[in-house]
Specification:
It is a single chain. By secondary structure, the protein is α/β, with parallel strands linked by helices. It has a single domain, classed as Sandwich (Immunoglobulin-like), CATH 2.60.40. The protein has 3 helices and 8 strands; from the N terminus they run H-E-E-E-E-E-E-E-E-H-H. A 4-stranded mixed beta sheet has the order 2-1-4-6, with no helix packed on it. A 4-stranded mixed beta sheet has the order 3-8-7-5, covered by helices on one side. It is globular and about 40 Å long.
Length: 165
């Protein structure tokens, strides 16, 4: 009889061990901080002036983007018409670092306020469910000056990276 109890006990332990991974909580991905430099001149392409580096950034929900005033005279400000509905925008002060934690998937367009006409613009793509909800609206925003051409280039990069279908 003790042999049956031992066998039953052993089967119970095996069953419990087999189910344990199913009951274990999932480990959350640690949020990441990404840096975007605000530059007067691109370090690898000196003909490009007044740039964010990188100008296209792909992140996950909960990640933080830090805009670093590497060169003086810049800021980072989101464009209200180029952020997901319900997401909070930002407007950094000149010559100051601004950090933004992005929770909502979607496309976030931003500019350097004094240099937007010179094409100092950028885009953060937060991947995840609902990412495409503001794609058409963000893509359809009209821009002036060099910003229009730079945003066109960025949207081409978005497509080349397979971020949109």
């Amino acid at each position: 009889m003790s042999r049956n109890i031992t066998r039953r006990t052993a089967l119970g332990l095996v069953s419990a061990a087999a189910l344990a991974p199913l009951a274990a909580p999932r480990i959350a991905r640690a949020a990441t901080t990404h840096d975007v430099k605000m530059l007067n001149v691109h370090p690898d392409m000196p003909r490009l002036r007044m740039v964010f580096l990188p100008r296209l950034l792909v992140v996950q929900p909960g990640d933080t983007v830090r805009f670093l005033p590497t060169d003086p005279g810049h800021n980072s400000a989101s464009l209200d018409e180029m952020i997901p509905e319900g997401a909070e925008g930002w407007k950094g002060a000149f010559n100051k670092e601004v950090a933004v934690t992005l929770e909502r998937p979607g496309f976030y367009g931003y500019v350097c306020t004094p240099h937007v006409a010179l094409g100092m613009v950028g885009l953060v793509v937060v991947q995840g469910d609902g990412m495409m909800d503001n794609y058409e609206a963000a893509r359809g925003v009209a821009h002036r000056g060099r910003a229009a051409a730079v945003f066109d280039e960025i949207w081409e990069e978005v497509a080349e990276q397979g971020l949109v279908s």
